[in-house]
Amino acid sequence: MDPVRNPFAPGAGQRPPELAGRERELDAFDVVLERVARGRPERSLMLTGLRGVGKTVLLGELRSMAIRRRWGAGKVEARPDAELRRPLSAALHRAVRDLAVRHRAPDRVDDVLAVLKAFALKSNKPDAKMRDRWQPGIDVPPAHGRADSGDIEIDLVELLSEVAELATDVGSGVALLIDEIQDLSPEDVSALCAACHELSQSGAPLVVVGAGLPHVPAVLSASKSYSERLFRYTRIDRLSREDADRAVLAPIEREDAEIAPHALDALHTASGGYPYFIQAYGKAAWDAAPTNPITEEDVRVAAPEAESELAVGFFGSRYERATPAEREYLRAMAELTQGKDESAVTSDIAVSLGRKPSSLSPARDSLMKKGLVYSAERGHIAFTVPHFGNYLLTRAD
């Protein structure tokens, strides 16, 4: 098979050639956009799921839907130990520029940009030297007395209100998309919830769409008790067998190629229906096939290549971030779950390692901060990465 024509695209956040199995989420967001356009109240959205299920891809697709509706749209990726103010400023700057194209009053747009610049400049530390102070690329003087208090909760409410009013002026809306939302600091989470609460009460045409790991609802709830009613939570999971087959068949057929039924079965067994793995195994199977169609033997031959690539880029890069004590904890989890994508009981991990549960808290908490595990429920812990337990059991250290 010609490798140049290989349709599969394993990559972080890279849109697959066939976005299968996400019609429900896309249709639901289309309803949100339409309701907001008609002045109807609507909750912001939170997409949750393990790594590799396509949350980032879906977030990008929702952004494209908003843009096609001629909304202003900006996207942020939260990062651990980094404040939200600066990247959020850049995302909203993009959204305001989208709206400015349709606005007939440049002065009104400049007023909003001035508030945005004032908000952005507060990311600089008061004692920072002039050469170290960040300057946002906004060509208007900063406003005074609006979104510049230094309190992120107050400032974010005021800024998003200004941006939403601009959207109202042009009969449009704004979508703010935030990826890896579990990595926000507690202060930023609190500010985001407060801002969404204020906007929902006023009926402002601004929707926040967040994406993150399965414990995001708990993160938001710990910040604001009303967050449970503030957002609509959607769990993004592995694809059904039908959708997983479509994710493989559609790209192959567009290249006028075929795959044998037993090869399709083997690909599904290997990938487990997880979108990222479908792309990884599909790409390797295509490259391994000497002729059309792709056979079960081609999938078998290709599997080690796909697994080797996943071991380095998907599993290994995360495992290397763990300390020796954390790796010990991860291996104990893998052994207790027998490599399956299930949660382990934290007290069982302590027994397995011959340690007191309290002595393992630092390792567990650090792994959670690194995004390698999450607390599925009280007293339970699970991997954020599908098949990670199996990877650990087969890893030769």
TrEMBL record:
InterPro entries tied to this protein: AAA_16, P-loop_NTPase, WH-like_DNA-bd_sf
Domain Orc1-like AAA ATPase: 18-209
Name of protein: Orc1-like AAA ATPase domain-containing protein
SUPFAM superfamilies referenced in this protein's UniProt entry, alphabetically: P-loop containing nucleoside triphosphate hydrolases (SSF52540)
Annotated segments matching region Disordered: 1-20
Coiled coil: none
Source organism superkingdom: Bacteria
